[in-house]
Amino acid sequence: MHLDEIVDWIDQAFGDSTQECLVPLSDESVRGLLRDDAFQRYFRDEVNRQIIRDYLTNAVVLGVISETGLLAFAPQVGSEEGRATLALYMLMSSVEDARDLPPVSGEVESLQPLQPQPGVPGDRSHIKLVP
After folding, report:
1. What distance lies between CA 129 and its chain's CA centroid?
2. pLDDT value for 51
3. Full 3-state SS string of 67-109
4. Cβ–Cβ under 8 Å, residues 103 and 76
5. SS3 letters for 26-70?
6. What does the pLDDT read at residue 20?
7. CA–CA distances in Å: residue 68 to residues 9, 39, 63, 83, 99
8. Per-residue pLDDT, 100
9. Read out DSSP for 2-22?
10. Can you give the pTM of this predicted structure?
11. Which long-range contacts (CB under 8 A, 24 or more apart) does 11-20 make?
12. Per-residue confidence in pLDDT tens, the chain, 131 aa
């Protein structure tokens, strides 16, 4: 399979993306559009699509998953919630782990916002750097 065929398959698995042509807008119109919840949702979904497209393309090119292995991702990439979950897992794992992604091997779970630990005032998550 050629690289453009892989990308085309992934794009088709996403389903329709409501891409509307932007006509010249005034500064106020642009600010209003960028603050619009529907636009923000659309934009997040487009970012998720790009993450998935790049990740899966790399996984096939590197031979981590086969061309037919792409079919296992079809149920997840076909819905907005599935794309959000899958993109998050992809951002948190290397391409070499593609065949082990939890959404592929099981049911997609809805993402839940994390809540800060009660009783720890001002404490935030920390990243520990390892030399």
Report:
1. 26
2. 93
3. CHHHHHHHHHHCCHHHHHHHHHHHHCCCHHHHHHCHHHHCCCC
4. yes
5. CHHHHHHHHHCHHHHHHHHHHHHHHHHHHHHHHHHHCCCCCCHHH
6. 47
7. 11, 34, 11, 19, 12
8. 79
9. -HHHHHHHHHHHH------PP
10. 0.61
11. 11/49, 11/53, 13/70, 13/73, 13/74, 13/77, 13/78, 14/49, 14/52, 14/77, 14/78, 14/83, 15/78, 17/45, 17/46, 17/49, 18/42
12. 577 888 888 888 877 665 444 556 667 777 777 778 888 888 899 999 999 999 999 999 899 988 888 888 888 888 888 899 899 889 888 888 887 776 555 555 565 665 655 655 555 555 555 55
HSE toward the beta carbon, residue 21, CA cutoff 13 A: 2
CA atoms within 13 A on the CB side of 17: 20
Distance from first CA to last CA of the chain, Å, rounded? 41
Are 13 and 57 a contacting pair, CB within 8 Å? no
- CA separation for the pair 128, 25 (Å, rounded): 45
